[in-house]
Design brief:
Cyclophilin; 7-stranded mixed barrel; 2 helices; 18 strands; elongated
């Protein structure tokens, strides 16, 4: 069992999310930095789909009721846990993660996985729809599943904060002027303070539309770069809705890279072509 002593700004249970339910209006949810979650699980011998704790901007303190093997990946938080390696600790150990100097999201995996009840095939917390377990609070106790795989001896470093996000234009890039399309990949964009798991909201030069009519609601996915009427793009995250009424000018080729962007970070878009 894992007791949450302090959750920090936001800590949630996340696995790889709920795929296959978009037609029912259910977002994918799951870890924002899926590569970091997969790595944390591999380090402790879990299957990559096991649930772990996603920690936002550090501040997490947990107490382990039983001896356990744990690993931390993602944004580098100082504290009393080695980074990017499987560590075996005795019963009664308290783990503390300080706020990271860079990046946003860290992942604490425990051998056996977090074994809360699954909803629609996933143990993930969806902050938009409310599906899955609630965001973690002090005093919460999380069960741990049965250990099965082999612990990895690999040691890795923390994830770097990206300075560029690769995108493919479309499906609604024709709703924007040629100047706006050039500006998307030519300008610097600053991450806004109201960014969250639903979307990374950006400040920069407004992107002008070439059309002024309304767009009917249509399907969107995590990584979609949607542009509301104020011209400031929003990069959809894992808890974003599955439909939207604003045009999507481009789509990220790798959503994981946006997960570590924090308010005030400066980022550019690079246009990817070909396969």
């Amino acid at each position: 069992m894992i007791e949450i002593v302090a959750p920090g700004p936001l800590a949630t249970v996340q696995d790889l999310g709920r795929s296959g339910y978009a037609a029912l209006g259910v977002p994918r949810s799951g870890a924002f930095d899926r590569a970091a979650l997969r790595l944390a699980n591999r380090l402790v011998g879990n299957v990559e789909t096991a649930a772990a704790i996603e920690v936002t901007l550090g501040g997490l303190v947990v107490r382990l009721a039983d001896a356990a093997t744990v690993a931390m990946t993602g944004a580098l938080c100082r504290g009393n846990l080695d980074w990017g390696a499987a560590v075996s600790v005795p019963a009664g150990t308290t783990l503390r993660l300080d706020p990271p100097a860079a990046g946003v999201r860290s992942y604490l995996a425990v051998r056996g996985g977090i074994d809360v009840d699954a909803v629609l095939g996933s143990r993930s917390t969806d902050t938009l729809s409310g599906l899955g377990p609630s965001a973690l609070r002090a005093g919460d106790v999380l069960p741990v599943g049965r250990a099965e795989g082999e612990v990895s001896g690999t040691t890795v470093g923390p994830n770097a904060t990206p300075t560029a996000l690769s995108v493919r234009f479309g499906p609604r890039d024709d709703w924007f002027t040629p100047a706006a399309q050039s500006r998307l990949v030519g300008a610097e964009w600053v991450v806004r303070s109201d960014s969250d798991r639903v979307g990374i909201r950006l400040d920069g030069p407004p992107l002008e539309r070439s059309r002024t009519d309304e767009l009917p609601s249509e399907a969107v996915l995590p990584g979609a770069v949607q542009v509301p009427t104020d011209g400031r793009p929003i990069v959809f995250g894992p808890d974003a809705p599955v439909t939207g009424g604003y045009p999507v000018i481009a789509v990220l080729t790798d959503v994981d890279h946006a997960a570590q962007l924090r308010p005030g970070d400066v980022v550019r878009f690079s246009r990817r072509t070909g396969a």
